[in-house]
Design brief:
Shape: elongated
Strand order of the largest sheet: 2-3-1-4-5
CATH class of the largest domain: Alpha Beta
Number of helices: 11
CATH architecture of the largest domain: 2-Layer Sandwich
Radius of gyration: 33 Å
């Protein structure tokens, strides 16, 4: 190794041990790196970054970022570019220093070329990191899609119970944040298919499955633009309406739904009992289900094929 160095730098008086001793600048850079890692760890576990990660994970519910989020992202990008520029200048100056150690005179032109090479290297690294980031985002979105599809009801293609109830909680919190904690009201519907067991027993499970699909499709067509639809049991569906809707509008849509599903089967009339709860944000999952179940029970007491609305 010493011979090879002597061939490369025959007149430099190269001393391997002395040339690679750490100087004051190297210790300072190492200390800055350690402090940067510690500071990054503290910031990563802060409440602000935790909230930021939750916003990213809940992007399917939140259609836009707040101004604070955009400003924070802009500051992070500027910080990264400043660090990149600093590292480019630092390594260019270190290269000049090493040439000086080996006895090579660095002219202004050579110094410019060294800096140019460092800029090219930085651009190549940024490009590679960008490609890697795109690949990671593609994989992340694919895994999120797989996770989301795993929470969907395979038969009816609406939300499964857990996904729907989580949506109910998150959409209330999101809407509450957007409106600066102002009070809003929504509707929670619990739909139970009347005499569904008889449909399965007399007409077969294939007809029963088709009935479930048709009812889910009707619910989506009518209510998806106002909120979300979920299948929360074997023959039970739920709907949350988190957009503004008057009682008159809701009753009109409920009558339309009951009319649409009545002709699903040619052999018999299909009907549903519907419990409706008018609530103020936010409400827990337990309270939504309990109060709406009470309304559903009253609808069944009235003879089924109807709806009952309870107001808090």
């Amino acid at each position: 190794m010493y011979g090879a160095m002597g061939i490369l730098f025959p007149e430099s008086g190269f001393n391997y041990k002395s040339s690679f001793r750490w100087g004051v600048n190297d210790y300072a850079i190492a200390a800055i790196c350690i402090l940067a890692v510690i500071l990054s760890n503290i910031i990563y576990h802060s409440s602000f970054v935790t909230h930021y990660k939750n916003v990213i994970n809940d992007s399917e519910l939140r259609q836009h970022w707040s101004v604070k989020m955009k400003i924070s992202l802009f500051i992070i990008i500027i910080f990264v570019f400043c660090i990149a520029a600093f590292s480019t200048i630092y390594f260019a100056s270190q290269t000049e220093y090493m040439f000086g150690v080996y006895g090579i005179k660095v002219t202004k032109k050579i110094a410019q070329d060294i800096l140019h090479l460092q800029v090219q290297f930085l651009a190549a690294m940024i490009s590679l990191n960008f490609i890697l980031l795109v690949i990671i985002l593609m994989i992340y979105n694919y895994m999120k899609h797989r996770e989301y599809m795993g929470e969907m009801d395979a038969l009816t293609n609406v939300m499964g119970r857990r996904l729907f109830l989580n949506y109910c909680t998150k959409c209330q919190n999101d809407r509450d944040d957007i409106d600066n904690k102002s009070k809003r009201k929504g509707w929670f519907l619990f739909i139970d298919i009347d005499w569904f067991k008889q449909i399965n027993d007399t007409l077969g499970h294939t007809v029963g499955d088709e009935t479930l699909k048709q009812i889910a499709e009707s619910l989506k067509n009518i209510f998806s633009s106002y909120g979300a639809v979920g299948r929360v049991g074997g023959d039970e569906f739920a709907v949350i309406i988190n957009e503004k809707m008057t009682k008159e509008q809701l009753e009109e849509q409920l009558k339309k739904f009951l009319l649409d599903i009545s002709t699903i089967l040619p052999e018999r009339t299909v009907s549903c009992s519907i419990g409706v709860y008018h609530f103020g944000f936010p409400k827990s999952q337990k309270e939504l289900l309990t109060r709406t179940d009470d309304a559903l029970y009253k609808a069944k007491e009235k003879g089924r094929a109807c709806y009952v609305i309870l107001d808090e």
